[in-house]
Amino acid sequence: MNKIRIATNDMVLTVKMSDEQANVWFGTLTRALLGEYPDIAEPVEMEEPRDEDEGEPAEEPAPQESYKGFLRITCVHCGETGSFNARYPIGFYRCKSCGENNALHDLHRLKFRCECGHTWVYHTNAKERIIEQNCLACGMPMQAEQDKNGDYSPL
Questions:
Q1: How many CA within 13 A on the CB side of residue 53?
Q2: Which of 1, 21, 49, 129 has the most CB atoms at less than 10 Å from its CB?
Q3: At 31, which helix (H) or strand (E)?
Q4: Model pTM score
């Protein structure tokens, strides 16, 4: 059994897989990250694996919340709102206006119902009492109101 680990200053992803899968994924990810520029890679000394019995066990980072599907996110830095469909679970949103990252946590359910018959369900970090969004099918404006739990229901 092997692990592939991808880390940034704020996030860590570790995936367990067979040795064969790990070798394939390592090569794939390396080529995707470096492309035709292998000279930009910085060599890093590998740490020797510790015995589990030695010292205190390493703390696993707390899992970060992630969301997929329709999201309506208001940037905490500049206040601009972006609506999009995340096909894969994401843990942050990069604002198109200011370029800052916004961590996604404690999002509320947002449900719209259009006169054309379509229903749209989003997740949002919005704080407004009433939210308006155009229908993706017909373009008509739809509204939803926040309830006492923070979720939004169609008006």
A1: 0
A2: 21
A3: helix 19-34
A4: 0.59
